[in-house]
Please model this.
Amino acid sequence: MKETKLGEFEEVILLLVGILGEEDAYSFKITQEFKDQTRRSVSIGAVHSTLSRLEDKGFLTSEMGKATAERGSRRKRIYAITAYGRKTLEISRDFKISLWKQFPHFGTDFGLQFT
Amino acid sequence: MKNSHPPRIANKLLLWFLKSDLVEEVLGDLEEQYFENLEKYTNRKANWLYWYQVLNYLRPFAIKNIVPVSKISNGMFKSYLKLSWRNLIKQKLYSSINIGGLAIGLASFIMIFFYVEHELSYDNFYPNEQQIYRITQRQPGNVYKGSDYFAVTPTPLASTLEREFPEVIKGTTINYLTALISNEDDNYWEEGLWADQNYFEVFNYPLLSGDPQKVLEKPYSIVLTASFAKKIFGNLNPLGKELKLKFHQDENQYKITGLIPDLPENSSIKFNYIVSFESNNHYSEALKENSWNNNSYFTFFLLKEGANPAQLEQKIKQAGIPQKYQTDKTYPFKDEYYVNSLADLHLNMSPLFDIGLKGNKKYVYFFSVIAILILVLACINYMNLAVARSINRAREVGLRKAIGAFRQQLIVQFLGESILITLIAFVIALGMVQLVIPYFGYLIERPLKLDLFSNNLMLPGILFLLFFVGTFSGSYPAFYLSGLHPIKVLKGKIDNKSRNSNLQQSLVIGQYAVSIILIIACIVIYKQLQFIQKKELGYNKEHIITITVRDMGVVNNIQTLKNKWLSYPNIKSVTYSNNLPTNISSSTIINDDDDIPENDLSIYETRVDYDYLDVYGIELIAGRNFSREHKSDIEEGYLINETAALALGWTPEQAIGKQFTHNGVETVLGVVKDFHMHSMHLSIEPLMIHLTKGWVGNIAVKVHPENLPETISYMERNVNEYTKYPFEYSFLDEKFNQLYKAEEVLGETFGFFTILAIVIASMGLFGLAAISVEHRGKEIGIRKVLGASAISIVSLIAKNFIRMVAVAFILAIPLAWYLMDKWLQDFAFRIEMEWWIFILSGCIVFLIAYLTIGYQTIKAALLNPINRLRNE
Model:
């Protein structure tokens, strides 16, 4: 198996960073999006901890955003996915698809044949 | 918009632990979340959620390096470990005191923890345990042995509850029985249970075979536990086979319809078989007639999930149960029904005539407190010795600081050291528990064993305990030593007197105060037990063998047996009765003047034969005993005790010939001296004695103590001619001692833990004395050179310690007096706490303390001063 070094939770967070884009990819919004999409409850701290771990692994970069009038003019840390992160996500996806292809009955259910 | 802000304390906490470069973004994120929550929830909830978010930032990535872990390299850890180890090896005396004390403390704690856990786990194995409830009742005014709460209920109650209250899913009626079970020629005398067909729906207990809803449906069905089935049938399949059951006069064939696994140890209701209640005539008739006049059975039921038991209790009351069903209009009490959970059965309540094995809640508390005390004593030892030795360690601290150690590093070092010691102690403690727990379990009659995996919380709990004990006992040395000023220390200018010796002294005083309280408790318990043993009971309990009668066959031939035994040389006299004088259990109501219902007197009664007073040596103080010459005695002749005479307003002499109504008009023949017919917990109540015409519960035989086994087997042979039940005999003084079993267990366990506490406290004192002698070595040397005598040097050092013990003694006395006074309140007949008990315990402690420090001080006093003064 390929070593992607990505856990399930990490993978979801990484995808969410990509989805949210450069405006909203900061801890609070990512946490909200996670709750909305998965219906699982999670604390900001847990997400933040994962984000910083992903950054350590090189999947993400981050920088402080600009100060705005919101939230007591405190700046946000905006995360962005790196090329390496994107590549890792793709590898992970491809790997799963290749597994699904080997899974019995999957192909036939969709009228597809893999030989 | 609500004008609020995130809770300040939470923010403070966050700022305290959060890495400074994260503060801005995190505060921003959390605030945004907070204001969003404010829109959705109340202020209060938003605050709680903020706290939740803050606490969730307690993660390694976000926490400041409060302890500069990064600064402690692997090499440093190795060095700490090595140093800790060297310290342990070098200071053998202190190490063994520390480790030994902690091990004893931990072992006691773990052992008592297992006991408490076992007590709390009763009946928790039913999957639906949370939903199982039962009915108990109070009959206000119907006081029996000091209580008017009863566990028994009328027969139709279970079905009535089921019918009238939708939240009651199923109700079941049960009762215990002991029967003689025969399979062809094999007889088994075993405990079982009556239960109706709903039993397995309420007590959801998986069967090995058989349909839970059907196995008890038909009369004369029996369900066996696996081990009992194996005992009877070996490896044959018992299903469908028949067994003969005999109890009282009933004898019937029962068909085996099911098998259940053996009940776990923590089941309070224990049985080897269940018999369908329909086969019991009393039960089935009472059910058919809807008779509410008898309270004989236990009613359990399954409550709908989420239903409130307190509400059900109210609804039962409002529905007028049981009054609306009671047909006996002369019934004097207004019964109140209560809903109790199965979980409360073992520990939390003990109504009269209850089913199941009972625990003692007080003892659970008692032992928990002792466990914690002993552990704290052991931790105190560690603290004290570490502080006392701080002079030796201070140089190390000074040196470390001088070459650049941070205070935090030192704290980590010392805490690590104490946790290491705790770990070693824990391993030894486990060994001790393994050795001792079977005896402890035997003593308290619980099947305890050392099993660290019995409970999911056990391992984390133990880790937490070790961490806590290590940190707690290491805390003072860690924070004190690490705070020392390196220059002062290296110059040798550390003063060891002032503030830490104050702390040390109060800790020692605390230890000794606890020991003294425990000693006083031991003496008081011992004296009270002695008092009970020696107290004039009003009857003679020596050399009396009692034989339990279970069979009408014996009752019908009792005169023949008696006459035969009276001619046996080693039997002095024989009597029979339906109760033993140690425990007279039936009570009734009499009146000396029917026109005045207020004169009703609740009175205990027992039925006896002509020689009862004679065999038990009960003294007659007025009137005459029953006599065979007066034919009317058997119908209307009664003896009463002094208390009954007093309650009826007569002196013993006046009482003779007076009449009262019971079943008919009865006459008082004589008055007997009060005797203790219950345990000493209860005062002596009115009692009446009359002649038995039918049932006999016990035969009492007064024997010569010689050739007892022969006498017993002679009696056994005789009795067995009339019954198939096994021959059950016991000595009256044993029966008597059983009344105080709980106190005896308490006394023994208490004694055991008291010794442990004293050992730990003495170990600490021994260590402290040793250190004190070491520190004052030069002083002692100089004093000796200047001509001090050995005695004056001994008293010089001992003085301080003895003073501490004296203070502990003064502190302990009022507390001990208060606690033991409370314990004694449980007895209607009790000792006074005399002053000598306190003096004696004081003397014991002084003696132990003196012996402990004596060795060290005398060694110091006798040592040649040159050895002390030579090296500078």
